[in-house]
Amino acid sequence: MSTENIADTTIYTRRESEARSYCRSFDTVFTSASGSEMTDSKGETYIDFLAGCSSLNYGHNDPDMKAALIDHISRDGMSHALDLHTDAKSQFLEAFERLILKPRDMDYKVMMTGPTGTNAVEAAMKLARKVTGRRNIIAFTNAFHGMTMGALSLTGNSSKRGGAGGGLLADVTHMPYDGAFGEGVDTLAQIEMMLSNGSSGIDAPAAFIVEPVQGEGGLNAASTEWMQGIARLAKEHGALLIVDDIQAGCGRTGTFFSFEKMGIEPDLIPMAKSFSGMGLPFAALLIKPKHDIWKPAEHNGTFRGNTHAFVTARVAIEKFWADDTFQQMLGEKAMMLTSGLQAIAEEVPGASLKGRGLMQGIDVGSGELASEICARAFEMGLIIETSGAEDEVVKVLAPLTTPNQLFRKGLDILLDATRATVAGHRLAAQ
Amino acid sequence: MSTENIADTTIYTRRESEARSYCRSFDTVFTSASGSEMTDSKGETYIDFLAGCSSLNYGHNDPDMKAALIDHISRDGMSHALDLHTDAKSQFLEAFERLILKPRDMDYKVMMTGPTGTNAVEAAMKLARKVTGRRNIIAFTNAFHGMTMGALSLTGNSSKRGGAGGGLLADVTHMPYDGAFGEGVDTLAQIEMMLSNGSSGIDAPAAFIVEPVQGEGGLNAASTEWMQGIARLAKEHGALLIVDDIQAGCGRTGTFFSFEKMGIEPDLIPMAKSFSGMGLPFAALLIKPKHDIWKPAEHNGTFRGNTHAFVTARVAIEKFWADDTFQQMLGEKAMMLTSGLQAIAEEVPGASLKGRGLMQGIDVGSGELASEICARAFEMGLIIETSGAEDEVVKVLAPLTTPNQLFRKGLDILLDATRATVAGHRLAAQ
Amino acid sequence: MSTENIADTTIYTRRESEARSYCRSFDTVFTSASGSEMTDSKGETYIDFLAGCSSLNYGHNDPDMKAALIDHISRDGMSHALDLHTDAKSQFLEAFERLILKPRDMDYKVMMTGPTGTNAVEAAMKLARKVTGRRNIIAFTNAFHGMTMGALSLTGNSSKRGGAGGGLLADVTHMPYDGAFGEGVDTLAQIEMMLSNGSSGIDAPAAFIVEPVQGEGGLNAASTEWMQGIARLAKEHGALLIVDDIQAGCGRTGTFFSFEKMGIEPDLIPMAKSFSGMGLPFAALLIKPKHDIWKPAEHNGTFRGNTHAFVTARVAIEKFWADDTFQQMLGEKAMMLTSGLQAIAEEVPGASLKGRGLMQGIDVGSGELASEICARAFEMGLIIETSGAEDEVVKVLAPLTTPNQLFRKGLDILLDATRATVAGHRLAAQ
Amino acid sequence: MSTENIADTTIYTRRESEARSYCRSFDTVFTSASGSEMTDSKGETYIDFLAGCSSLNYGHNDPDMKAALIDHISRDGMSHALDLHTDAKSQFLEAFERLILKPRDMDYKVMMTGPTGTNAVEAAMKLARKVTGRRNIIAFTNAFHGMTMGALSLTGNSSKRGGAGGGLLADVTHMPYDGAFGEGVDTLAQIEMMLSNGSSGIDAPAAFIVEPVQGEGGLNAASTEWMQGIARLAKEHGALLIVDDIQAGCGRTGTFFSFEKMGIEPDLIPMAKSFSGMGLPFAALLIKPKHDIWKPAEHNGTFRGNTHAFVTARVAIEKFWADDTFQQMLGEKAMMLTSGLQAIAEEVPGASLKGRGLMQGIDVGSGELASEICARAFEMGLIIETSGAEDEVVKVLAPLTTPNQLFRKGLDILLDATRATVAGHRLAAQ
């Protein structure tokens, strides 16, 4: 296939479903990527501030992961192994135990679910219901937990929910997230009142499921006090605490788990996205041992435990989390991001910063404006996307490993794109 | 990690969830695999008659797929690309169009769902409900379609269903599969009577979902007449026909799609398992163009469209399906399998053959007996599993590419294992 | 209001909801009724072969019930008493215990539910789920159990179900009634296969609910063997047996309970319709004492235990069921009905008799023909209605107390109406 | 049966279900009642401050209703007439149109549902879903709408919900009622935020259902502003407004409808309890004509339209609502009630008044205290009950027709009972 053919996108309109989406905003054919840069079939290079929606926290094609994976394939290492024991899985589990769990004084079993976040969430929902004998799960406004029917019942977005064509999304109560009713309204107190009132109509919950930072919901970041309050409520009401760290985990907020410094102990933790290190499909559910009451194969799946992903996930853990060097670097880079975004926000009347760590963005007030800024940034060589109920947040999800210079360059493009967009609007308004 | 450490399985009891299953039957640590053979950390080699539950139809680590994947990784080809256009995806779609769809005169859009069969099934359920504005989906006894809440509502197995902890499995009617009530009972006629009776309590269906051969349900194979009848009923009642070809597709029954020779045109076809060629997580939903009414991102997911899998899936198509050589070979091998299984069945009083193509097995009458045969086979170097509501079927799912000599060797082991088991039972009964 | 005004029906089109139905077929204003005859505002008299859909088994305004009720009202007896103890309730319960339960060697608690059949059914559903800890309830094709959401989920009729506007009707499995698949097909065996197959997708049932004769569903009468089979299946599968005797009970089939001679012991028996004797709103759920695990007020309602109905229900029991005179008369009248209907059926090609006891009718093959016959009968002074999924059955539900001469007169009108209708069709077809 | 036998209550423990409740608090056998007084089998007389839970707003056995009903029965007026036209129904509808609807400039169709409040609520739910094509219904904390599965899904009380034994209560969102989060928290604003946020997880509602005063929920009375806000939200979001006036209607709050002076126009109004005038089972759904899209019999029921109740309901309308005399009297009596309750509340530290009109009570802070006061009042000849999530409210629901002197006497007993109870507690605490 010639380069020209590669750049041809008619195959997509002819053969790929209308459900496709990102390719509509970034309408080119990508052929390679390394670190924080992506290259298309025309040889254009883009800085990646999307990072596979936080699936590429360690950048594209990390050389050590590549080398390990190529070595594994070359020596006929297992590619598909159901949930059999493999050397790759042993080594992953040992690294995860030694470098992630033990240093954090955490004791969890690892359940290899189907290799998608939504599958880990579904496993968590089932297990919480099985453990408690209850059905109701409390999810939050602006939550996103996945698109299969169980996870979708937890998800807030009406368009995603509507895609189910009227299929049943039951046994879930949607409650206001921290800050959902504006500053000064204590949503925790209200949730507590609803649960304590025996006539509120809210059935006793099997679980609370919460994202410490809502990646799809607009980078809403819960306060430590609120998260502790939810943890306390869960305990008081006999419910499990499920912390969905799929998008915010793996260093994205500055620590491996996004809730590490909050003093809470989740019962169940769905992980996915950057968990494989290299963007390969991989997900797991971390389970407090006392809750691990599954019968063999009671929740199973053909691709649970992606062997290639075990290889790269182990390298990711050993390379980035063996000591605190990486974590310290993340703190510095987060400050750089905050100050960069503050400068950009000043260009947009009424704009405000959202999120925390390396999961920050700017609420520019409207989805149209945010989309326009992102489109203009793409023209200028930066890949960046929106988030939020109305797509009103320009969201930065750069690889955590992005070199400072490139990171600044990306922020500069974003600043220029924002300025140009705002100026265009001013002109149009005159 | 030394070989000794690799063979150590205490990490699994310490850290892997109780949900793990296959590793309990095949309790060793696998380190490499090639073609139809797997090797463990002690250097033992096993013939693989499980093939990742039909995910490895082309064998382990096919050299051409390996080469293409290593080349892709080496040159920094995309590893994770959301649903962006990539050269790998273009090339896969073009090969699929040219070598699979066109020669079969089929016109389908390809929806890249999350890379698991259950996700493709959930997408099909949503779409059928969206297209028809109805909710009820008719599934069949002994069906298995996946473990997320939507797909699970279609699944027959009570233990799998029970794992949902009482979560809701609604909007599905379970009907008897072909032969479910024994020979001579026409289940199609009864389904028709239920649908035609306006007071049967069965709501008008959005879809029928059917496996042409029930892989998990005991290798029940529907007749062509019955499948045509279901297709006709679907049309008459304004319902979509979903043919789940996840386990039976990709050549397993002798043709690329298991329903090719039945003269039916499914509206939606979930594909997974061997669709990537090399056992990598990958799934897709084939959609008749008129039904492709998705809005962008209405069903999405982080790992939809696994780029590494595009590379190997394209090689699989080009290598095995460019002409009819492979398909002819499959027919011959299926006959070899049938005659081999007949010889084995003669050893077991009351045993009978199930399935078709290279998806056949022996119903030995009890799950205990079948499990014992499989356990003994494992001791003798053969990996093989059971199937069916009571695990009563010994199921052969060898790689389609297994060389004849090795295939016969596997069947010989199965024969010996069966003889030994039956003899043991006779002794015990005396 | 003058007689003329009384005959005016514009108030109905102006003020009564479109949901009204019987008044459309019998478009006159009724002013009084006695025994088996009703009189309208124009002084016309009609023989009643509808009997309030079996709510007036003892005829209109039985003189003894009238006298007792007038006496009760005159002496300021309680009219509304919630579920307080009243002399009227004590006397009803004592009569029911002494003359209904004890002679039949039955031991049941009486739960005063809201005074409608659907409420008694809902109470039965709740209790069966509470007792077993299961949710699924098995109901049958052509079943009718009521119109509130719980009872409606059991009901077969698609038009009734559709009236719920897409509200959820879950946790019910609809199975084929005796004879639903035609003669020679043993639906019991098939239900048993579905329940015994652990992969059928049918969840373990909390209960079976069955009408011994399906009043709304077309006068399908289950055989004793089939009913015994269902009772056995319920016991074997740990489910409760609910026999809905709302329409078939209170003597309609020849005995007080319609299942008396079948050798089965239902766990729960919803009663309503003729249970009050005089057509007053009244319903109850009979509960085997071991299942009576309700907490106080766990199922309640403002009108549970209609005091006026206690008065008339007691009279009905004492007057008709103190010895077997009434029951013997029912047997004779049923034979008269059968022979009368046979003569009529001979007028209609392909017609057949349905039902048993004084709950019989003629399946004339089409709803149009049946409706035409009923309309013509009304013109001739007989009130009679259709039944069945397609309204294809002309159903006789005369008061059980109808004098023989009047009964014969009614049958004669029906014969004439049928002949005239069939003759009209013959003419039209020429 | 001798008087002695009548007083015997062993028949209840022997034969009435454990679900019975009021008879446990008021453990005597009532034999007659007139106006606001009830008499038991021992000749004891009680003042009735319960009034059949607001079903006896016009007192027991009103002489005019009695006379009309006896006359109707004596002349063989219809007792049961399905939904046929009857003189009794015509006259009721004409009186309702002339004296209730027209003077209030209201235009509604009357749907005769099954004769219970819960049935009218279920009909409203179905119709709202049918009209809007949506499923979600918004109900409020502490709401009570009935015990059948549809209405129960709206009901807040966890014990009532739990009685469903895990049956599904879906498609309802429970929101905070006016004041549910304490003074100063604007629940309306929060409901609006949840509905306006496309990612809140709250599906677009088919309807809001609200009680202007929550009878079972603790006499919470919504403000006019809040009710107007809910009406506005319903309109803005394309939802129907259902005002459940079952307990608060028929004069209980001082006007025929409890919302008359609020400037709102409900789409659907379920009525029951005192709608029959004399406590006979009777319910109806008032429907704005444009929403009356029922097909004939799409929601039906054997006892819809209780003919005896038509007779007494007409008398009630003509006697009490032909001019504003009765309504003026209600205003005066409500003031008497308020001042009487204030005096009583002063006896209980921390107590506060709840409710409005003749539907007021005292929140005494605990269910135990409230129950003790009621029990002591019963000993002193007053029948009165508690309300609220914890039964913490002593609720006065006297017949509206109670003569002033008797009303004062009842309040005096309540004052004495409260004083004695509080004094007893003080002693115990010393």
TrEMBL record, chains A, B, C, D:
GO BP term, example: ectoine biosynthetic process
Record-listed E.C. numbers: 2.6.1.76
Annotated pathway: Amine and polyamine biosynthesis; ectoine biosynthesis; L-ectoine from L-aspartate 4-semialdehyde: step 1/3
Keywords: Aminotransferase, Pyridoxal phosphate, Transferase
Cofactor(s) needed: pyridoxal 5'-phosphate
Entry keyword annotation includes Transferase: yes
InterPro entries: Aminotrans_3, Aminotrans_3_PPA_site, Dat, Ectoine_EctB, PyrdxlP-dep_Trfase, PyrdxlP-dep_Trfase_major, PyrdxlP-dep_Trfase_small
Molecular function via GO: diaminobutyrate-2-oxoglutarate transaminase activity; diaminobutyrate-pyruvate transaminase activity; pyridoxal phosphate binding
Coiled coil (UniProt feature): none
Family as reported in the entry's similarity comment: Belongs to the class-III pyridoxal-phosphate-dependent aminotransferase family.
Protein name (Swiss-Prot/TrEMBL): Diaminobutyrate--2-oxoglutarate transaminase
